[in-house]
Design goal:
Elements: E1 2-7, H1 10-34, H2 40-54, H3 60-85, H4 87-93, H5 100-123, E2 124-129
Antiparallel strand pairs: 1-2
Helix pairs in contact: 1-2, 2-3, 3-5
Length: about 130
């Protein structure tokens, strides 16, 4: 039997696709504007994730969970830790250079990551589908 991914919550499905597409457009813009080769990895991951979601591949659920965990939670968490470790340098140089917007952006990413993981675990299922006869 072939397995496929099913989204029980349509709103979450469309919001997730919209969020990944927005990140993809942003990364493509950064790549074109700054010719930053390191942006090619997130672009490839987001394209792969969208392909898995649209094709209802059985690995879409695990792909969403891994992507949200690594890209949103771990990545933003490490960025916050790096910013915290850099606080003494910022205070010595100039108190006005404290990166408040960086903390807000990263905390928002972490919150979105937690929501994506929570909704994916509750509303995305991998079910067996009947294959068509030859």
């Amino acid at each position: 039997m072939k397995k496929q991914t099913v989204f029980k919550n349509r709103l979450f499905y469309y919001l997730l696709i919209g969020f990944i597409t927005a990140l993809l457009i942003y990364n493509i813009y950064i790549f074109i504007k700054m010719l930053n080769v390191f942006v090619l990895l997130p672009i490839a991951l987001q394209l792969t994730l969208l392909t898995l979601i649209f094709s209802k591949n059985q690995y879409a659920r695990i792909g969403i969970l891994v992507w949200a965990s690594i890209a949103l939670l771990i990545g933003s968490g490490l960025d916050i830790i790096g910013s915290i470790m850099d606080i003494p340098n910022n205070l010595i140089d100039n108190i006005s250079s404290f990166p408040v917007e960086s903390y807000i952006f990263n905390l928002t990413d972490i919150a979105i990551g937690i929501l994506i993981i929570s909704y994916t675990r509750r509303t995305v299922l991998v079910i067996a589908s009947e294959t068509e006869p030859d």
